[in-house]
Amino acid sequence: MPITEKYRGLSKEQLLGTAYALGVGFERYSGSCSQCTVAALHEMLGFESAIVKIASSSCGGHAGCSVGTCGAVVGGTIVLDYYLGRPAELLSATSEIQEGQDALKSVMEVSGAFCKRFNDEYGSILCPGIQTKLYGRSFNLQDPSDWDAFMEAGAHTDSTKCMRVVGNAAEWVLEMLMEKKAI
Known about the structure:
This protein is mostly helical. About 60% of the residues lie in helices and about 0% in strands. The chain starts with 11 loop residues before the first helix and ends with a helix.
């Protein structure tokens, strides 16, 4: 699926900058790092809106539990899987399909490279690790007082915090899809 008409004609650098800016904007005004990463890419690539919906609660260390994978990582891998993942017809409950194993290996390499970028930039792919890098501590997002502290620390108002993480994720995924000629 190509770039949507609204963004056709932009250079690679402009497309990557747009993905970043959309990620930042969606995170600032809508929240849910997983869903906002996917929403930024949906805006540019036009894939089914159900994919955006699927990413709703994979944020805040998964469903706000503050212990799991960063939602921007989850959202990014959802989009990578959408374009590069192993199709259902290459899975079997009764025998191994080598082409399916090869497809899985291929997408795992790309998603692994995406996760490596997170580790290189933030020292972790886990929400609490990334929060500690950005804020000097992690927050329990299900605790109302910690949620308030998280918001006061700039979660959705400081462009160097969670908004940057989502912007980076959207940009990195778009760049990887371009490199793989998936779009």
